[in-house]
From TrEMBL:
Alphabetical list of CDD domains matching this protein: NAT_SF
Protein's name according to its UniProt entry: GNAT family N-acetyltransferase
Coiled-coil residues: none
Record-listed E.C. numbers: 2.3.-.-
Family annotation (Gene3D superfamilies): 3.40.630.30
Keywords associated with the record: Acyltransferase, Transferase
InterPro entries in alphabetical order: Acyl_CoA_acyltransferase, Bact_Acetyltransf, GNAT_dom
UniProt-recorded Gene Ontology molecular function terms: acyltransferase activity
Amino acid sequence: MPLLIRAATPADLPELVAWNAAMAWETEHKRLDPETLQRGISGVFEQDRRGFYLIAEHDGVAVGSLLVTYEWSDWRCGDFWWIQSVYVIPAARRGGVFRALYAAVAQRAVEAGAVGLRLYVETENRRAQATYAGLGMQRCHYWMYEATLPPPGGRVD
């Protein structure tokens, strides 16, 4: 049976929390605070401007997801859609789940008038890099920098 790609709903919150936590551990050996993660994912459902999640299902069982967020480009007068928080359950990996999710994002982006798709990938994750290249994505010439800021009245961990 082919994969079904659908928009996530708040009912998917437990799986999205679990999958984001698993992805953070697998990729960075980082343990995320479940309460913060749940509030962060819920925040996407609460405000459309933050983005949306897609879920991939096989035979009615959710097997993967991703988050899309938006970045305005003044140079191109349009939005880039950022693919983030990609997770596919181990049993479904290498089975076309990400490819189907990506195709759904690309179709929605074209329909919405987005100017491009972007994503982050770990520098050592050659398998993911090959997957993205196989989908026609190209490595860009920018390096990414970040600075973590403390929450209001809080401290950075």
